[in-house]
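Team,

Forwarding the record for the chain on the shared tracking sheet. I've put the sequence and predicted structure together so nobody has to dig through attachments.
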Amino acid sequence: MSDSNIGGEASILEERRRKLEELREQNIAFVNSFTPANKAQELHDSYGHLNKEELEDKKITNLSVAGRIVLKRVMGNASFITIRDGSGDIQAYISKNNIDPDLYKNFKSWDLGDIIGIKGNLFKTKTEELTVEVHSIVLITKSLRPMPEKHKGLADIEIKYRQRYLDLMSNPESKEVFIKRSQIVSSIRASMLADNFLEVETPMMHSIPGGAVAKPFITQHNALDRELFLRIAPELYLKRLLVGGFDKVFEINRSFRNEGLSTRHNPEFTMLEFYAAFATFDGTIDFTKNIIQSASEAIGNSNQIEWDGDKIDLSNFSTKTLNDLVLEHNSELSRAHLNDLEKLRSYSQSIKVPYKDSWGVGKVLLEIFEKSVEANLIQPTFVTEYPVEVSPLSRRNNENSSIADRFELFIGGKEIANGFCELNDPDDQAERFRAQVTAKADGDDEAMGFDEDYITALEHGMPPAVGVGIGIDRLVMMLTNQSSIRDVILFPQLKS
């Protein structure tokens, strides 16, 4: 690190501002005329495999690269620097013999973090490091604040999230996660388009919160003088499109839920939601599996991945019913107990799962499942046969009206996807909306309202359909082996 980077940040800032003023006086501050023709990683990919002699024979000249100085070694009349662009790092060699001596003198005063442009020829050092021999150099942007120290990094995790640019600037590993996130989303979009889904956009402000069981954010539309809700899910609008005649639709959307912050939850998050008319339940499970496998392959993963210390096999997805899993993980319960409300209430108390008197068998059973089973579903598992009571938008099963044709996918002990055959009976849907309204009146802040227009849409007739929601953030966490959702969201919400 150069001498100018030693000392407190205030003195560094003062010194660097002095240098900036000198540049302003020379009318060379914030240069906007340098356009690089090459990227660091492109050079490594194209020429990194050549040895010193082979590279010399190639005579790679007239290169131009722009980036931030992240390492600087000044050795009298010659210097080595490492510059970092959007693709990676490349070393550069600057000699007093190759550039104007006055420019070299100025260069020696430049600081880590400064953005520069270089032109020159490519060679390899005695240690076989790919290097640009600089014949032209320009200071493009003066950095007034120092970069995080290489070895200390961002010790304050809050700074890492609040000032993500510092994290990306100094940690290539963090940058790689977000590159992979983009590749995952691109893969998902490609999977949808290849199966003839139509990508659509639906409103982010709703007059009635719906599409999921969650507490909404409330805002005010001044011109209309009414409350609006940031969407908790796009589901009801997407299904209106099925009524309108689109057979397959999807949206990669931002949704908002007014809930707490944790390593697994952010109030603003990204979802894939898709709906397909006349699709089968089992076929949709297979399609969901293929989306995830393709996304994993898109970032170079094998079928064997690791997440939070668990080894996960993405080539092997199982399907089990919720009841079977509850019995498997709760030996004190028998199949007869699963329809016995009093027994389930008593058991839930014994495992410290609270319940409300208004809850039926289905809700208590779900709470037991979430407490005793979810965390143990490490290998990819589709859980089916959810109670209708906790599935207000799902179609009832033909053979058993108390359960819904619904699945949830769990991997690594966390929910990754939720899907179900859509309820298209307007009378049944209206009754479930009324139950949600009653629950809301009883104090359930997450219950849905009664969406009269959606009922009207169903009365026009919606074809049978299957819909799925996949949490993009959590999927990225899994595929990139990240423990916190904050590490896969560029600017997560934080406590003040």
